[in-house]
Design a protein that fits this description.
CATH architecture of the largest domain: Alpha-Beta Complex
Number of domains: 3
Shape: globular
Largest sheet: 6 strands, mixed
Number of strands: 28
Radius of gyration: 25 Å
CATH class of the largest domain: Alpha Beta
CATH superfamily of the largest domain: Creatinase/methionine aminopeptidase superfamily
Strand content: 15-25%
Helix content: 25-40%
Structural class: alpha+beta
Number of helices: 18
Mean pLDDT: 96
Length: 600
């Protein structure tokens, strides 16, 4: 997007701000449900900044504009904001204030601060409200000032909803609802509001198509004592779905009436809420209704621990997915440079191959197909006709996944195209070492992702380097590719409840090295937590990989690996070969045997 266009949009927005007496206007990258990936309808921040990453908050004042984003997007944001006049605020970097701290420092008494409270999670909204109170600044949280400027805004979605049969879910929705109501009582609450879309899809065994790559439908759920109501868009509800909810004794109501209904509703107190999962507007309504109990949504933990049916189907899906990616990597190693294939064409080829897998429904996120310096942009997306050709002398990184009947996949591999030199091979070897160390660790139940992160990060830190993201995230089952509440990271988030990693949890293991302007390396396996044994000292856990895709041996410096690390690599490569060979044929078999050969 041209910088001049962004400047014109910001100028038009400021004119609206002046007319509405707004001194500051905040745009959060979200929808009313706190979704990570959002429909075009809600991409206000992207429209007014030109920054296309999935995470970023834009604060527009009458004389400046600033955008906060995290380390995954520093390189991308710097490029996309160039010439726009918007200042990039690199979250977590020395000397960079948080959004709330910046507001505290710059807001002046008597000013008006506006935002759309539906798009701001209540946790952030409360912190902003507390700061503005002390500064004697008026917070107006029911305003969408973008409407008068963004006149060609895309319409929202309301696709049909499908029902997931018990043979895919492993547990019927009636049992899930009963278990949830019991959990709410255990928390000392009598009612509960669920806004997160994946939580509701899991609870009712339904899936939608309202957000690209995320099989969710727009919905709100209210549990008031034993009465359960779900708010859905009328056009998304079929006769079959109505029967499904009638059988569950769940009331189906109009999505557009939710906020009005909530204001009038006589909720049994206390009300259980997750401040990070409900938006600020919902919070403002609920805080007038009596005592609130703030805890992580019970459904978040319940769905994070996969049941035996889900685990069995996931293992099958990951093998099928791994076969396709391995065949693709074979083709790329032998043809990418010779045929001058570009990033977009390569990604499109993999997407097409994956779509042929039985049970495929969609991608789980837009494929990241990146060569050379583009691979340093963690969430890069190649554009047709405007992307790099793959040539000799650097890395090709592909991060991709699919949505299937039976699971959600996510996997990253980086391969060498030609020779890259010893320095870059050292980076590659360290990333492989880091991934395998975490995958093979043994730990006690009670450990959180903060406890385990250093296992993967240490080999990178030893080089005086770091990757500006977490090491791992939870994976949904036929749901969002990024799922809480567990994660593997070393930075403890504000007001974050520690979440132990439990048997049945599915997580990514994806350390990396990213050097702006040069190269990026990420190796990602999906790992399942399982119990080893319980004895007098406690319960011991470990991970087993679901991903079986070879590591490129051309990038490995054996002399850079400890004997135990080399053994882990050889053991994994042997497991990859044994797992995939029954599903391979022809030249793919020969190539697979060669690249998984024992090193050292």
């Amino acid at each position: 997007m041209k910088p001049g266009e962004i400047k014109n949009r910001l100028e038009a927005l400021r004119n609206v701000m002046k007319a509405r007496q707004a001194d500051h206007y905040l745009m959060i990258t979200s929808d009313p449900h706190g979704s990570e990936y959002i429909n075009a309808c809600y991409k206000e921040r992207e429209y007014f900044s030109g920054f296309t990453g999935s995470n970023g908050d834009l604060l527009v004042s009458l004389d400046e504009a600033l955008l906060w984003t995290d380390g995954r997007y520093f390189v991308q944001a710097e490029e996309e904001l160039e010439g726009s006049g918007i200042k990039l605020m690199r979250i977590g970097q020395s000397g960079v204030p948080t959004l709330v701290d910046y507001i505290k420092e710059h807001a002046r008494a008597g000013e008006h601060f506006m935002m759309d409270g539906r798009l701001c999670d209540s946790d952030l909204g409360i912190r902003i409200m507390d700061v503005l109170k002390t500064k004697r600044v008026l917070l107006i949280s029911d305003s969408d000032l973008t409407l008068d400027v963004w006149t060609d805004r895309p319409a929202d979605s309301a696709e049909k909803i499908r029902i997931i049969p018990d043979e895919l879910s492993g547990k019927n929705a009636s049992a899930k609802i009963k278990a949830l109501i019991s959990r709410i009582k255990e928390y000392g609450a009598s009612s509960h509001i669920i806004s997160g879309l994946d939580d509701q899809m899991w609870l009712f065994n339904i899936r939608g198509n309202d957000i690209k790559c995320n099989p969710v439908a727009y919905a709100y759920t209210v549990i008031n004592g034993r009465e359960v109501s779900v708010y859905l868009k009328n056009s998304s509800v079929s006769a079959e779905l109505s029967d499904h909810f009638r059988h569950l004794e769940v009331n189906v109501k109009d999505y557009d009436s939710f906020y009005d209904d909530l204001e009038r509703m006589n909720l049994q107190a206390p009300v259980l809420i997750d401040p990070k999962s409900i938006n600020y507007r919902i919070y403002q309504i609920l805080r007038m209704k009596g005592k609130l109990i703030e805890r992580t949504n019970p459904t978040a933990l319940m769905k994070a621990v996969k049941n035996q049916t889900e685990i069995k189907l996931l293992k099958d899906v990951y093998i099928k997915d791994s076969v396709v990616l391995t065949r693709f990597l074979h083709f790329m190693k032998e043809n990418a440079a010779a045929k001058g294939i570009d990033e977009y064409t390569a990604g499109f080829m993999l997407d097409r191959m994956r779509s042929e897998i039985k049970g495929f429904n969609d991608l789980s996120f837009p494929t990241i197909s990146a060569f050379g310096s583009n691979a340093a942009k963690m969430h890069y997306e190649a554009e047709k006709g405007n992307c790099a050709k793959i040539t000799e002398g650097s890395f090709y990184l592909v991060d991709s996944g699919g949505q299937y009947d039976g699971g959600t996949t996510d996997v990253t591999r980086t391969i060498l195209i030609g020779d890259v030199g010893r320095k870059l091979k050292r980076h590659y070897t360290r990333v492989v070492t880091a991934m395998l160390r975490l995958q093979n660790t043994i730990f006690m139940q009670g450990c959180t992702g903060e406890n385990l992160d250093i296992i993967a990060r240490e080999p990178i830190w030893e080089m005086g380097m770091d990757y500006k993201c977490g090491t791992g995230h939870g994976i949904g089952y036929m749901l969002n590719v990024h799922e809480g509440p567990a994660a593997i990271r070393w930075r403890i988030k504000e007001k974050s409840d520690p979440v132990p990693i439990l048997p049945g949890m599915l997580l990514s293991d994806e350390p990396g090295v990213y050097v702006a302007g040069s190269h990026g390396i990420r190796i990602e396996n999906i790992i399942l937590c399982e119990e080893i044994e319980t004895n007098d000292d406690g319960t011991f856990l470990h991970f087993v990989p679901l991903t079986y895709v070879p590591i490129d041996p051309d990038g490995i410096l054996v002399d850079e690996m400890e004997p135990s690390d080399l053994r882990r690599l050889n053991d994994y490569q042997a497991a990859v070969c044994d797992t995939l060979i029954p599903f391979m044929e022809g030249d793919d078999v020969t190539w697979l045997k060669r690249v998984t050969r024992e090193l050292g």
